[in-house]
Amino acid sequence: MRTLLPLAIAFISGLIMVIAFFINPEQKTVGTISQDLLIWSSIIGGFTFLLGAISITRVNWKQVSMRKPGWGYNLLTVLAVFVMAVPALWPAAWLPSGWERLAGRNAGSIYDWLFLYTATPMSQTMFAILAFYIASAAYRAFRARSTEATLLLLTASMVMLWRVPMGEAFLLFISPDLPGVINTYIMGGISLSVQRGIIIGAALGAATMSLRILLGIERTYMGRS
Amino acid sequence: MPHIKRISQSVFFVLTFAFILFSACPTGAQEETPAVAEVSQKLFRADRTNVLIFSLIFAGVILTYTKLAKKGKPLFIRKIAGLDALEEAVGRATEMGKPVLFIPGLQELDEMETIAGISILGRVAKITAQYDTPLMVPVRYPLVLAAGQEAVEQAYIQAGKRDSYNKDCVRYVAGEQMAFAASVNGLMMRERPAANIFMGAFFAESLLLAETGNAAGSIQIAGTARPEQIPFFIAACDYTLMGEELYAASAYLSHEPLLLGGLKGQDLIKVIIIVALVVGMVLILTGNGTRYVELFIPK
Amino acid sequence: MNIWQRLAGLHRQWIFILVWIAVIFPLIVPATFEISTTPEVKALYDAVEALPDSSVVMLTFDLYPNALAETEPMTRAALHHLFRNNHKVVTVTTIPLGGPSVAERVTRELAAEYGKVYGTDFVNLGYKPNYVSVLKGMGSSIESIYPADNSGTPLGRLPLMTTVKNYADIAFIFVVTDNGIIDFWISIVNAQFGKPVGAGVTSVMAPKQYAYIGSGQLTGMLGGMKGAAEYEQLVGKPALAVTGMGIQSLVHFLLIGLIVVGNLGFFMNRRSQAKKGGGA
Question: Which stretches of chain C are assigned E, i.e. beta strand?
Fold first, then answer.
């Protein structure tokens, strides 16, 4: 039953969505069922956030209670979860008059302030580190060890120049047509065809995997081989 | 279970055959029962006939090859270096007494890449169970946490090492992309895993994770179907699986006939697509391609 | 260790310092450059220009806070363009952290500049989980997926949403994103519902979108900060993206310089090792 029920649910709901794809949307029964399934799926997705909150609290609190090394950071994690979530969910009507703006997720609320002045700068800092990492990765990886590697680094250099105004000015100095050639033949030609090949291959792989899941052949997502 | 699979396959084909019959009724049927024909025309989306035909061909080919594989027909798969290196990577970690870090991507469980990642996690967990190597699996979503824990537990049970299984080896780290990357980077620099395995959907944090792993001295194997992240993994990792190689991993590692059959079927579909592309190219170059192209464009 | 070995094996700390200098210098000594317009950006601009007056455009804020430097200029330029042309804007997001807050902040700020009224000229629907369900569901009924807007106001009480029931009532979808959701907007909304889609994406994602532009599934594209700068220029509101071009130019030149230096060290090292080996 533990294996059969999830497989049956996966098969039936997948089949309904496949059939609904080919049915006229005006057709009531299948159209309604498929729309309901989509809404249910959205609701279930919301519940998974609760599961995540419980999991992160449980794992980190265990570290705190056992005073594992670095438990202070685990305590900070748990506090951050509640400091952000509680004001966002707190009903504004329960707050004294004049303080209602602090609750909820609108502009001026605690949640919005924490998002703007803590979460956003920290995320952007992490993203900014990429600029440094790309430089060190490019320096290390772009070596003309072979013909293919040489071709790679020449193409990459030309595209890097093309993507910035100063570089484009340099390319125009070499030839007025060069930026257009890069856009048309490298980005819109070679790169486009390679990207298409990977997209088609990956899409076929995903479609095969979907078919296997639908028919119950692939069950590793349930922890069964 | 095999009976349910056969029944479900039969029901699927009967229903799709019924659609074709219903929607592609010859004019004779329309003359005899105009009400039925009218209903069938309203029921079925004729503008999606080309998608239906391709879907039937696709499903038919995959299932045919799966049947052939079940009958014992030998099916060849080329070597995928990244997947061959998985056991070597875990062995390296065992020798060094360091853990293995596995990340099944940063997407939800409904993404195919994540399911492929969880599938590979099960195989890797079996190897780490056999070698008694610590395994760390940070995840970004709660459903992936549940699926990951289930996959690792089953792997340890299959390896006969139920007592060695630690539920907290799969842990929910953070729901936000950069918070996840920061947390995992910290984990890498503290624990210094000997092997990092990135299998699934990755975004901007791919280079952050791979470069930090490189700085920590880990051997790194990555696989993603996101074309925009593949260059970063190639630059920073020792082995990279590109695109559908990630989806092929499950079949490649298990050598299960059912999965191998699907892989071979996929290859035949690709051949069909290539033939269609070449035919289209020739027709367009000779100025006769308009009607051919219209077959593929949604109306 | 000779000079060539040092050049070939430069420690990453030195590279990081050089990048830091390349980023700081243009902020101290700003420079402006002429920014040419690529065909993809022009196509997106023209598509919005061609929309009939008072068309409803869905502008998506499918972005995380980390890439705001690239994506926020796109959303601002898009809103300038849409509000200036008197279009109605419905904003949605599939990203829980970042999307709704940024959408709220940016749209209200720019709406005030153009005197637009919430509920009549623009609506922020906010976030709902499971993006595949959301994108497919809006094709039948937006209200079934979003019974209320981001602030909790039922859609029936918003004048704009009484006329916008599903994708059929939306003229154009302008997706601004820094993640793979663009693939779903194309494969679900464009392919299945036939709605024209234009995209603003980060520069890392831009090469992949050329495949969709080539097949006509994407009307146009803003690729990274350069794309945003081009669009800002076309709309006539140069801002952060145009300013950022100086920094990006210098960093790109630095990267190319590092690649050249690294290869020089690599080749000279290899030659001297070959000579030593030949001598022995």
Answer: 56-62, 88-93, 122-127, 172-177, 197-201, 221-223
How much is the pTM?
A: 0.83
CA-CA distance, A167 to A179, in Å (whole number)? 10
* The pair of three-digit structure tokens given for residue B148, joined into one six-digit string: 């990951």
Give all chains having 3 or more CB-to-CB distances under 8 Å with chain B: A, C
Q: Torsion over CA of B170, B175, B180 and B184, rounded to 10 degrees?
A: -10
Distances (CA, A) of B138 to A28, B101, B104, B194, B238: 44, 8, 8, 16, 21
pLDDT digits (tens, 9 = 90+) for B81-90: 888 899 899 9
Closest CB from C132, C211, C266 relative to A195: C211
Per CB-CB distance under 8 Å, the chain C contacts of B201 are 180
> Taking CB atoms and an 8 Å cutoff, what residues of chain A touch C29?
none
Supply the Cα-derived Rg of chain B in whole angstroms: 24
> Which residues on B lie below 8 Å from A23 (Cβ)?
43-45
Residue from the list C178, C191, C205 with its beta carbon closest to the beta carbon of B298: C191
Residue B9 φ then ψ, to 5°: -60, -40
Helices (H), chain B: 2-23, 27-32, 34-43, 49-70, 81-96, 112-131, 142-158, 177-191, 205-215, 230-236, 244-254, 257-285, 290-294
- Residue of chain A minimizing CA distance to B238: A141
Q: Is the CB of C191 less than 8 angstroms away from the CB of B177?
A: no
Which of B9, B207, B244 has its CB closest to that of A134? B207
Size of interface B-C (CB pairs under 8 A): 30
Helix axes A28-65, C131-140, angle to 10 degrees: 150
Can you list the alpha helix ranges (DSSP code H) found in C37-98? 39-49, 68-84
* Cβ-based contacts of C224 with chain A (< 8 Å): 163
Q: What is the pLDDT of residues B196-241, one digit of tens each?
A: 999 999 998 999 999 999 989 999 999 998 888 998 998 889 999 9
